[in-house]
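Extended Data, panel c. Modelled sequence:
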Amino acid sequence: MIEQPNTGPVAGWRHRAAYGYTASLPRRGWAWEFLRRDGAYRRAWAHASAAVAVETPLPNLTVMSARSDLREMAHWGLFFR
């Protein structure tokens, strides 16, 4: 479910066939679907992504670690510690 914000099927968002997976999304999944399309979020992520390490230690776990202070991402509920 988690993908880096500047990648993925955003360009095809108008195609109904691209949304079959949404029938089983939990609230968290729906939140991500809206967040990843938000222009302000995408701009903030583009700026912050250079200071972020993304790891996937387990198939359903993505860990994103900031190498510097990313207060602008806290607004989006990310990098809160």
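The chain is about 30% helix and 15% strand. This feature is highlighted in the accompanying rendering.
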